[in-house]
């Protein structure tokens, strides 16, 4: 019998540079050496995922300062996506435009998609992802109920495509590794999968408004968080629910009925991690059994931890798997296996 996975619980880094709630956390591509965080303070900060030798400590807890700060948003930053070559990243929020940044430059954006056209989003943008060959497309989802595709290489400000099947706001989206599919989640309680090449859309009906999506590496399963207080692992081929978290008999303490909580796969997809609206804790569940593997007090003040992100480890690169969590108290904490 194999042992159930453990929730990595050793605090290795703390990021305290933001002055508002954390809404977005994204690790850099190609190893995840860096972490990008987006906040209601309208800024994006670039920091080291693991503390450097010069990191200060308070009561033996490492505190890392931001390496770079990006300030062009006029509204809260709600999502960030990093290109595969780590040269650029995209961010979205209340501005109704998709911001494209050069990682090396903090003094301004490369492009702002949707800002100079009447074909842009008409409400806040909740999610963004790179897609297509060589990350030449950006995909954004908005409260205006649309998903829009933008050509990174073209100087045309109009979207390549507008997907308007949703009946309510788009809360999250993700792009499988093939680059030509888009999976979107909506407050209308639907998960829609678009095959852009074939012009086809398939739809799965969920029991509540969808607030969070995370894809497995092979793209065959999707983790769906809903406002009915459960997270479900769904088979994308036939739409069956493979597992629900927390288990029906373990619901006590976990709450998600009003806020967007971004959950994720972790530990080589053996775990599911999520914050909770009720108590400032992050909980972990075993993917195979659905059972709880523990919880951590990430917000000592008990405020909501709204986003968690996982970075896979690599023996070849000598790095450990770790996860970051942040939320209403404006602090991001990074944990690894003890």
Which helices and strands, and how do they pair?
Blueprint: E1 10-15, E2 22-27, E3 34-39, E4 44-48, E5 56-58, E6 61-64, E7 68-70, E8 77-82, E9 88-93, E10 98-102, E11 111-113, E12 125-131, E13 137-142, E14 147-151, E15 161-163, E16 170-174, E17 181-186, E18 190-195, E19 200-205, E20 210-215, E21 221-226, E22 230-235, E23 241-245, E24 264-266, E25 271-275, E26 281-286, E27 292-297, E28 305-311, E29 322-327, E30 332-336
Parallel strand pairs: 1-6
Antiparallel strand pairs: 1-30, 2-3, 3-4, 4-7, 5-6, 8-9, 9-10, 10-11, 12-13, 13-14, 14-15, 16-17, 17-18, 18-19, 20-21, 21-22, 22-23, 24-25, 25-26, 26-27, 28-29, 29-30
Please explain how this structure is put together:
- The protein is mainly beta and 338 residues long.
- It has one domain (10-331): YVTN repeat-like/Quinoprotein amine dehydrogenase (Methylamine Dehydrogenase, Chain H), CATH 2.130.10.10.
- It has no helices and 30 strands.
- The strands form 7 sheets. The protein has a 6-stranded mixed sheet with strand order 5-6-1-30-29-28, with no helix packed on it.
- Strand 2 (22-27) and strand 3 (34-39) form a beta hairpin.
- It is globular, with a radius of gyration of 19 Å.
- The chain starts with 9 loop residues before the first strand and ends with a strand.
- The model has no long low-confidence stretch (mean pLDDT 92).
């Amino acid at each position: 019998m194999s042992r159930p996975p453990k929730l990595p619980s050793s605090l290795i880094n703390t990021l305290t540079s933001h002055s508002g709630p954390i809404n977005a956390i994204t690790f850099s591509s190609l190893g995840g050496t860096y972490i990008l965080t987006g906040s209601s303070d309208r800024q994006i900060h670039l920091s080291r995922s693991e503390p450097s030798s010069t990191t200060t400590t308070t009561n033996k807890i490492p505190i890392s300062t931001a390496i770079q700060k990006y300030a062009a948003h006029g509204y809260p930053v709600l999502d960030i996506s990093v290109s595969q070559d780590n040269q650029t990243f995209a961010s979205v929020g209340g501005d109704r435009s998709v911001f494209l940044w050069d990682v090396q430059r903090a003094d301004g954006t490369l492009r702002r998609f949707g800002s100079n056209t009447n074909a842009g989003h008409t409400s806040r943008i909740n999610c963004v992802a790179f897609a297509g060959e060589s990350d030449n497309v950006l995909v954004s989802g908005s409260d205006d109920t649309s998903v829009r595709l933008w050509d990174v290489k073209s100087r045309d400000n109009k979207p390549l495509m507008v997907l308007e099947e949703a009946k309510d706001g788009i809360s999250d989206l993700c792009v499988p590794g093939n680059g030509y599919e888009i999976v979107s989640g909506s407050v209308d309680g639907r998960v829609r999968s678009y095959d852009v090449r074939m012009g086809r859309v398939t739809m799965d009906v969920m029991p509540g408004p969808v607030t969070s999506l995370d894809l497995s590496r092979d793209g065959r399963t999707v983790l769906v968080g809903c406002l009915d207080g459960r997270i479900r692992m769904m088979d994308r081929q036939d739409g069956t629910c493979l597992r629900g978290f927390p288990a029906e008999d373990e619901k006590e303490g976990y709450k998600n009925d009003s806020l967007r909580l971004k959950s994720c796969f972790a530990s080589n997809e053996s775990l599911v991690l999520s914050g909770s609206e009720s108590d400032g804790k992050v909980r972990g569940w075993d993917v195979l059994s659905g059972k709880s593997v523990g919880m951590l007090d990430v917000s000592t003040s008990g405020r909501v931890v709204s986003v968690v992100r996982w970075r896979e480890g690599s023996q070849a690169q000598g790095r450990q798997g770790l996860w970051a969590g942040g939320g209403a108290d404006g602090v991001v904490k990074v944990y690894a296996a003890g």
